[in-house]
Amino acid sequence: MSSTTVEHEIKRLEAAYWQAVKDQDTDTCATLSADPCIIAGSQGLRTIPREEMRAMMSQQLPYRLDHFTLSDLSVNMLSADIGVITYKVNERLTVEGVAVEFDAADISVWKREEGKWTCAFHTESILGDPFGRDRA
């Protein structure tokens, strides 16, 4: 498989993961997650085993992803079996009944084991002033 084909596959998988979150498709989220998957974001760091990811996604979450648009996707292959995808995302959510929209920069690390790709690490940073001065 050429590196271009692998890069397209990682982009497809990242979009599929987002669609699974939007669709509240617990099984796909768990299947696409490495065991464990590391998540870093505004709420800190978490290392989440696959079954915990499945349980977490099957609960009533405090938000609903209503729409997403991925842009500026770029894949950097660290090896034949490890790829890093970077991109921007526009998210429209409903959080505790309130509509929220923002742009963020995301990074995911995908690894291939026994021919199967899973997301081993994901992080998201809301775009804006790095010191938070643009937030109310």
Q: What is the CATH class?
A: Alpha Beta
- Percentage of residues in helical conformation: 25-40%
Q: Helix count?
A: 3
Give me the CATH architecture, please.
Roll
* Mean model confidence by pLDDT: 94
State Rg: 15 Å
Output the helix-strand order: HHEEHEEEE
Major sheet: size, sense and barrel closure? 6 strands, mixed
Ranges where pLDDT stays below 50 over 5 or more residues in a row are: none
CATH topology: Nuclear Transport Factor 2, Chain: A
What is the 3D shape? globular
Structural class: alpha+beta
Total number of β-strand segments? 6
- Beta content comes to over 45%
Task: Kindly report how far apart the N and C termini lie.
Answer: 48 Å
Total number of domains:
1
Strands of the widest sheet, in order across it, are 2-1-6-5-4-3
What's the gist of this structure?
27% of the residues lie in helices and 53% in strands. The protein has helices at 3-23, 26-32, 50-58; strands at residues 33-41, 44-48, 63-79, 82-95, 98-113, 116-126. The longest helix has 21 residues, at 3-23.
Task: Describe the protein.
Helices cover 27% and strands 53% of the residues. It is of the alpha+beta class and 136 residues long. It has a single domain (3-126), classed as Nuclear Transport Factor 2, Chain: A. β4 (82-95) and β5 form a beta hairpin. α1 (3-23) packs antiparallel against α2 and α2 (26-32) packs antiparallel against α3 (50-58). The chain is globular.
Which key phrases capture this entry?
27% helix, 6 strands, Nuclear Transport Factor 2, Chain: A, alpha+beta, 136 residues, 3 helices, 6-stranded mixed beta sheet
